[in-house]
Amino acid sequence: MSTGEERVIARMRPHARVLIVPVLVLWGCAFLVALLLDRVDWPLWNTAVLTVAGLVVGLLTLVPTLAWLSRGFVFTTERVVIRGSFGGTRRETMLSRVHDVTVRRRGLQALFGAGDVLLSTGGERAVILADVPSASLVQRMLSEQLGARGIDFPDAGDGATTIARG
Fold first, then answer.
1. Considering only CA atoms, which of 157, 164, 149 is closest in space to residue 2?
2. pTM of full prediction above 0.85
3. Among 98, 115, 142, 163, which residue's Cβ finds the most Cβ atoms within 10 Å?
4. Cα(23)–Cα(142) distance, integer angstroms
């Protein structure tokens, strides 16, 4: 049952707290490079320090940041699109197939308001939107979209939709 022209409701990426470690690595490398440059009387010392720092920054800062930038979720009036790391995977789930939306929070996700949003489609496994920022808001938005489509979907407040913490 189509509700008319499909339009984009929201675009988002996984929660940005995964970038904390790359930023700390970048700061640590900058500090160590400043500390180690011109400390040894060897002609290739500065080249070696800068090469090692470049490799560490590339592997532990640049790669995780690009991976985070390449992942994302797009919510439309008709479907949910999940884009995988480095554009390798793209998964679409039609809202007409979704019959339950659940939020699961683990570890630090609850502290940051993030969570995993599980879309039950009646298949073997639920579609998982991993580490969504403002997961409760996304759950409410999806519930409203399902309600607008005429699907009998209970509100998150009446206990029918599960919110697991822990």
1. 149
2. no
3. 115
4. 33
